[in-house]
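During the second half of the funding period, the structural biology subgroup turned its attention to how the target accommodates small molecules. The most pressing case was adenosine-5'-triphosphate, which had performed well in the primary screen but for which no bound structure existed. We therefore specified the complex as follows and requested a full 3D prediction, including the ligand pose.
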Amino acid sequence: MAGILIDKVAKQFGNAVALQEISFTVEDGEFVALLGPSGCGKTTLLRIIAGLEVQSSGKVMIGERDVSSLKPAQRGLAMVFQNYAVFPHMTVFENVAFGLRMKGADQARVEAKVRKAAELLHIEQYLERFPAKLSGGQRQRVAVARALAVEPAVLLMDEPLSNLDALLRLEMRAELRSVLREAGTTTIYVTHDQTEAMGLADRIAVMQGGHIVQIGAPTEVYSRPATRFVGGFVGSPPMNFVNTVAASGQARLGGLTLASPVDGPIVLGFRGEDAKLTDAAGGAPFTVRVAEPMGSHLLLTGRIGDDLARVVAPPAAQIAAGETLGLALDPARIVWIDPETGRTHPGA
Ligand code: ATP
């Protein structure tokens, strides 16, 4: 078992900076998701940890070892990538057995570990087939089983579930989580899907433009985003942002008065499920434009002043487009953001 230390790792491709100096640690047995939009540097960072890409500066430690200049095979890790490479000339069994055979495991051990990994990934019935006779999703499960079969101390995954259909993805997500937790595998998982990161990770590192903008537990990142970008990227619907101007330590939105950390222009951030609906006079005026029945809730999209906001109402609420309601907000559940820097005011 091993933790991971990323120490001031930076990467340039020619003149283009893919990673600014990045530092963070992953505890032994922890599951950290690297989450961010396309091009933010997630894959580059993962490939540097794997040894498939060389950092321009900085170092990578796995356990007590500085692996910065070691080849991938010497780093003691397993990888699963989106374009899962399974060997077409080998059966599923031999694909899953590959890493074990490389390590010189005896046949009994190979059999036992392959069966265990195959069971976990629900591919027991395909063990004698060749990959050409599998669907994309099944091949992806073979790739995951192959990585898990060697019981690696560190597992690196890059969008490993992206080729699966929605239901299988959900099922695999839950299984991966329990399997890796049980095995105590230290995992770094790249995804641009925030629900996947929220569901799987002990901590999420949100990346933007080659930086980690925030790293924390899913609930922390969700309810206390460090920046406007994080609040907008994590959560569906995204966090709502309302521009206002505070004076004498207070921001007023219609009938709603909130204590603001500073005076002047400021952005109020809140989650759609944290707003309580009241009558128009008793809260921030919210004019409903669209009411969408989502089954579990009614999703209201409307305006607060010039800003668009999404608010979650009970499924049977009788609310129609065109109505103006009031929104009440719990001061403990809101964030205040500096409109210039996009950063959240600390502790506010
Ligand atoms: P995606 O989700 O689309 O895979 P990502 O967050 O994983 O995106 P990276 O693939 O790490 O992003 O790319 C980060 C930046 O580095 C991008 O601007 C990309 O164009 C650039 N980049 C990546 N690999 C190379 C390369 N081999 N040569 C030049 N530029 C590269």
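Two results from this model are relevant to the next phase. The longest helix spans residues 166-183. The CA atoms of residues 37 and 127 lie 36 Å apart.
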